[in-house]
Amino acid sequence: MALLVRLRSKWDEWIGNSEIDTRATGLESLAVDQVAADGMEMTRAGRRFIWGPTNGVTGQAPATALPTTTAQWVLWNGDPYDSYVIDQLGVLLVSGTAAVGTVLLAALVQQPAVVGAQATGMQVTSASNGDHTSKALFKANVTLTQPVTPNWWPAAALYNVSSTAVFTVGCENRDLRGRLIVPPGQGLALSVLSSGAGTTPLFAPYGMHHEVKLDLE
User: What is the mean pLDDT of each run of 10 residues along the chain (217 residues)?
Assistant: First the structure.
C-alpha cells in the first residue's frame, strides 16, 4: 500500500498534478501533521475571521423570557458560495451590570435577508490580515420570519457560583469548532437570556468562524 501511494504521488508529479509527495506511516495509513496548531491552516489561508464590538457599539438588553421571533442580533451569511463554519461564539457585557446568570441562545434562520451596512460598532476582520474579505453582516433587533418557530439552542452559558453579579461579564463557547454551520444566504440569530433584569446591562456578540465551500447534504 505504501508503495502504491508513493507511485501515485510520483505519477501526479510527472503529469503536473502535484509537486508534493504523499507520506504514509509504517502501518500504511496517511501520515497526519502532529506539529501544526489546531486551526492554523484555515487561518494561514486567510479563511478565518474574528468579529466583535468596538467602543461605538450599541449593546442590546437581555431578555428575561425565552425569545420567539425577535433576535437581538443576526449574523448573516451574504456569500453566495461559502458556508460560515462557527468555531467560537460568545456575548460580552459592554455596559451596565448583569444579573448572576447569562445564556446565549442561537438559531439558524432563512428570512428576512439582512442587507445594508454593518451594525454600528460591529466589525469583522481577517484572523491573519489576509486578502480575502468576508461578507458577514451583523444587524440588531431583527424580526424573524423563517422559520416561523426558530429552534433557540443554548450555545453558551455562564452561571456565577459566587452569586456576585459583578463577575458576570458575558459567556462564551470556545468548543464549537465546526459544530454549527451557517449556509450561504442564511443567518445565525442570537439572543441573550438573563436570570434577572440587572442594572441596565447591554450585550454585544463576538466570535470566530472560517469560510469554505461545502457540500451541504
Answer: 55 58 70 76 92 91 90 95 96 84 92 91 93 93 94 83 57 90 96 82 94 88
Q: Which three cell numbers stand for residue 62?
A: 437581555
Nearest CA to 112 out of 148, 145, 69 is that of 145
When computed from its CA atoms, the radius of gyration of the chain, rounded to whole angstroms, is 21
Which residues are within 8 A (CB) of 25 and not within 5 positions of it... i.e. 6 or more apart?
31
Give the whole-angstrom CA distance, residue 188 versus residue 207.
12
Cis before 112 (ω within 30)? yes
Instruction: Give which of 122, 113, 86 is closest to 212, Cα–Cα.
Output: 86
C-alpha cell at 120: 454600528
Q: In DSSP terms, which residues pair with 107 in a beta bridge?
A: 189
What's the chain's length in residues?
Answer: 217
